Amino acid sequence: MFWYTFAATLLAGWFLFGWLVLRQGFVDSVGEALGTASALLLTISVVEAARRHRARGAASER
Predict the structure, then answer these.
(1) CA 27, CA 30: separation in Å to the nearest integer?
(2) How far apart are the first and last CA of the chain?
(3) Tens-level pLDDT at each residue, the chain (62 residues)
């Protein structure tokens, strides 16, 4: 649960940084935060798939 809260906090911070500090438009900042969230989900998916593949390979070698 900690990592979900951590990721959500980072995404909210990224949104606020783009909107308030970089003075992007609201819609641009939302889009950038959603794009970052999508990239984060894709990265997590690839890493977990690789971990499961390795674990399955190690179990079948026994």
Answers:
(1) 5
(2) 33
(3) 888 899 999 999 999 999 999 999 999 999 999 999 999 999 999 999 999 999 887 676 66
- Residue 61: both structure tokens together: 């070698």
Beta carbons of 33 and 20 less than 8 angstroms apart:
no
The pTM of this model reads: 0.76
CA 18 and chain centroid, separation: 17
Which residue, among 44, 28, 35, 46, has the nearest Cα to 11 in the 3D structure?
A: 35
Q: Are 58 and 51 in contact (CB under 8 A)?
A: no
| Sign of CA pseudo-dihedral 46, 31, 13, 17 | positive
